[in-house]
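Protein 1 of 2
SEQ + STRUCT:
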Amino acid sequence: MYEYLNGLITVLAPKFIVVEVGGIGYRVIVGNPYAFEQNEQVKVYIEQILRQDEETLYGFKTASEKQLFEQLLAVSGIGPKSALAILANSDHTGLIQAIVSGDVNYLVKFPGIGKKTAQQIVLDLQNNLAKLPFDFDNIAGIEKPSPSNNKELDDALEALKALGYSARDVDKVAKKLIALEGLDTAGYVSAGLKLFN
């Protein structure tokens, strides 16, 4: 699984860029290829999507943009193309405000997003956006996340989500795990798994 590519942009096309790394050109689908420049040395964050008949690399300028893409993919009814279309604008302030305020009319303006899917985006993401490393100071309606006092617990909660537990279920378990002090990340993960069983 790729995390990012450090290399030179050798091709700009309407739907993708080619990033050359060590003599190999990686075709990367991006929301707005023209946000990059030909022959620019870049670091592109990568999400690799494997399907039965294809392997596709999706690229992002920042790690937070990649994380937002991953959260959008977790929403029922949103595939990679729809998620990329939503993120094509480099300023995601309006998107985040719409999700926080439940502004479905803003979300249905994106290609392939109907009212039902827009409502699902709000439902699934409203409580998760504050965890992303965006600059929330200038976004109305969102309180800037306070630094966590327990990194081990935070890492354990993310690990539980990565195992497939829903954000809602993990949040319920988190309330019980907070009471357990002095555990390392593995200890919190183990305790969390016991609470699910």
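Protein 2 of 2
SEQ + STRUCT:
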Amino acid sequence: MDRKDEHVSLAKAFHKPKANSFDDVRIIHQSLPNSNYAETSIATTILGKDQSSPFFINAMTGGSEKTGYINQELAILARETGLMLATGSISAALRDPSVAETFTIARKENPNGIILANIGAGSSLENAKRGVDLLQADALQIHLNAPQELVMPEGDREFTNWLSLIEEIVAGLDVPVIVKEVGFGMSRQTIQQLLDVGVTTIDIAGSGGTSFTQIENARRRKREFSYLSDFGISTVQSLLEANEVPGFFDLIASGGIRNSYDIFKSLCFGAKTVGISASILNQLLVNDLDETIELIKQWQQELVSLYTLVGAKSTEDLKKVPLLLSGESKNWCEARGIDYTKYSQR
């Protein structure tokens, strides 16, 4: 089986809504929200572009006939719901032009939408430019996935040039650059390293959703790395870490997003937008495109209600919503010297 098809099959097999760090976060209810549903906007701005919704379809797949069909449906989904769309890693298309159409189908189906190309952190500036040109992309995602590579039987084993290559791409590319994890989260130290080389948009992509160490370990003859299935920093913990970093950058949350409430909580931590992969992919595979479109529209409507519930007229207003932390997220704050009480005192 093609590796990309195997990833999709295993992601579907392992996908099931489960408890994660978002369950550690409670909204402190205020009984007088002073809000009006009809005057509430869930719009956001990211990469210098206005978006009608504060969430998007994050990077997933591409590189085979089956995954090309998935990208086609994702592009239609993005077009019909007004969502930004990121493709999976385009490295396969750069190596083998015969599979390029499994990625370019996204632009064909959604010619006027905002589309992000995706490439690995070990890629050169030249390949980054080729990837952007291939998709006529509005921005580039550079993904960080060291744990996945090390568990992947055929993965990379050398990471010494990642940061310097990212710096070169940020300086030399004509479109915005997002640096994202792939479900292992980010510490404040990592975020600061990225800011120091010029990155201004960061997707912390925490653990709690799809585990690529689990997927890659399932592909091995011997399951040596089963203890890494839950490796990483959770999405809420990563958001807490990000909020401890001084300086300006646009924060994106992703990893384990199950529903509109998880999107809402991420935005309350200061995320500009929220990326969703597995929940959308599973809906698409189990049901169909029309039902997935309806689900996205339902989430958009639910978010207007959630904004109204807390008196937020805009996405920016959500930063004022008081939050109460418990469980592992609270323990993380205590261990890392983060004052979690400031969230409840907003």
